[in-house]
Design goal:
By secondary structure, the protein is of the alpha+beta class. The chain has one domain: 3-Layer(aba) Sandwich (NADH Oxidase). The chain is 39% helix and 13% strand. It contains seven helices and four strands. α2 (34-46) packs antiparallel against α5. The chain is globular.
Amino acid sequence: MRDQTFTDAFRTQFDLLLRLRRDVRRFRGDAVDEAVLARCLDAFRLAPSVGLSEPWRVIRVESAAARAAALRNFQTANDDALAGYSGDRAQLYSRLKLSGMQEAPVQLAVFCDDSTDKGLGLGAGSMPEMRRYSVVSAITLFWLALRAEGLGMGWVSILDPEQMARDLDVPDNWRLIGYFCVGWPEQVSDTPELEQVGWENRADSLKIETR
């Protein structure tokens, strides 16, 4: 077992990692080294999961046909989302770059296997959604691992998940958690892009209520 004592220098670097994690939508065209990607993907193996169920299912979207289908999915959903805004907010939305699907060299679709029998249902009987939360936890660790390597990731959530499942021909009990674009970011910032363009502001502090 390694020494579990972390230094102040480590904590400072970890804080910086959290601040620079960012949702990336603008990528350079450089390829991602396969060994680096594999090292980052190992975060899934190390992630917590309810009942040790490990319900994540990762698909690497590589073919031109699969990527084109995913891009069409996004574009349709994005047009629908734009129609829900009006006035200045619609104008601002129309200028947002909300995916890096046309540039990112690595693209992953991550699903939750709701039917897995691994873990024997421990912890998921009263809250079956815990399996999906487990997948999100694994994705978060993967995201931080990527940033530690200098890579960036964008989470594309403007999608029809059922259409994505059909296009990728996954089992019926898999549920899409997210579509992810991975690559080298054009720039690095500690400020969310949506805050930079005036869409929304990040809270200054966490409000904690007591009961």
